[in-house]
Each structure stands twice: as structure tokens, then as C-alpha cells.
Amino acid sequence: MKISIITATLNSEKTIEDTILSVFNQTFRDIEHLIIDGGSIDKTLEIVKKYPQRISKIISEPDIGVYDAMNKGIKLADGEIIGFLNSDDVYFDNNVIEAVVGVFLENNIDCLWGDLVYVSKDNLKKVVRYWKSSEYRDGLFGAGWVPPHPTFFVKKEIYKKYGGFNLDFKIAADYELMFRLLKKHKIKGKYISKPLIKMRTGGLAHQPKNVAKGNMECIKTWEINGFKMPFYTPALRTIRRVCQILIKRKYFA
Known about the structure:
By secondary structure, the chain is of the alpha/beta class. It has helices at about 15-25, 45-50, 65-75, 95-105, 155-160, 175-185, 210-225, 235-250, and strands at about 5-10, 30-35, 55-60, 80-85, 90, 110-120, 125-130, 155, 190-200.
């Protein structure tokens, strides 16, 4: 079973090598790694091209944002399973993909997700937040729940059937995608109770100027998919973020 890992990049020279090596060092070997670059003007592509035996496909051209790049990757991917690894993220350990593929092989599922560890922008060993997820059940989105998208692996046939990222969304297209697949279309998913990704803080959605916009896009997600978001959901989403900061002490004291 081949798995495709898509990394969208734009001026990522400071972190892209960590990401590439994180994929290469996985114990599972049948990995296709795609780099979808938005036209970097720093040394990103120079670094990427140092690893011709480790990168399966590289394209570099202007796009209209990270979700556009991810959609391009989905179309180019040859793997049965597709995952995303951001250009400033790494896998939690070298066994992540082996564990992911094993769960797909052992279960009749369409997707899976796990836990995510937020780390310092400058220190991958310094844990800032721990996103403890759970199995999905109907009603959880209303309670402010959503899987950590970087840990979300999906069969390619699901993207072919239900589509990729909605480019009308600039901040929360990942939320809309997972909501559409899990709540609206009720695809079969499974949760792995272990951290899969280390994610550096400071991403697009977590910048203060984008938080309010992201919340509005979450409300829009419900509307365009034929649902009405409960009035209490935004508050519960905020509470869950606070809990992620507190819970890190349990796992990384």
C-alpha cells in the first residue's frame, strides 16, 4: 500500500530540510513525497533539490494559497492514502507512517487521525500544547471538536468522490473538508491514540488577525453543508484550545 505525503511550501528555507528528513527517516518505505511550491524566492527549492532520491515529485508555480497547493498535490498523488506534512512540521517519530498504514490495512476505514503536539517555533523539543483527540461520534463538531488536520490521513478515492479543499475558504478550508467528510458524508474514520505530528507554532490560522476570520469560516462551513452551528460551539472551541495548553503537563511534564 503506497502512501502519498504532500508538503506545500513557500519560502520555507528555515524548516523544509527537517520536514524532508522526517519523511525519509520513516520505517515504512513505500512513500511518495510531493513538494508543491508556490514560487519561493528564497533557498527552499535549492534545499529540496538536494534530495532527488527522496522527493518523488516537485512543482513550483504561483498558486492562490496553501489549500490550492494541497489540491494540486491530491491530483498528482499516486498513493492509495494521502497525508499532508506542512513545510515547518515533522513526524513525532520514525514509526508514524508504519502505524498509519497498519491501521488502514487492519480496518475497513476511509480515514484516520491522531494527536498533535505543538512545539516552539525554534525548538522542536519544547512542547507548547498537546492536542488530544478522540474517536468521532455524531454531535462532536457541535461540541467544538475537530481532528487535528495535519494528522488526518484519507484514502484518495474519498477525495475523488467528495472533492478536496474548498478554495472559498482562506483560513478554515481544512475544517470545512473534515466537517464535510465526517459529518455530512459520514465516511468511516478511526482515531489513533498517539501523537503523530510535531507542529511549530505561529501558523496562518493561529495568527491573531486570522482567528476571527477563521471562526466566521467555521460558521459558514455548517451553513453551506446544510447544518446550523449551535450558538455555544465557538465558545467550546476556545475552551478546547485552552485545555490543550493545560493537558501538555500530563504528557510532557
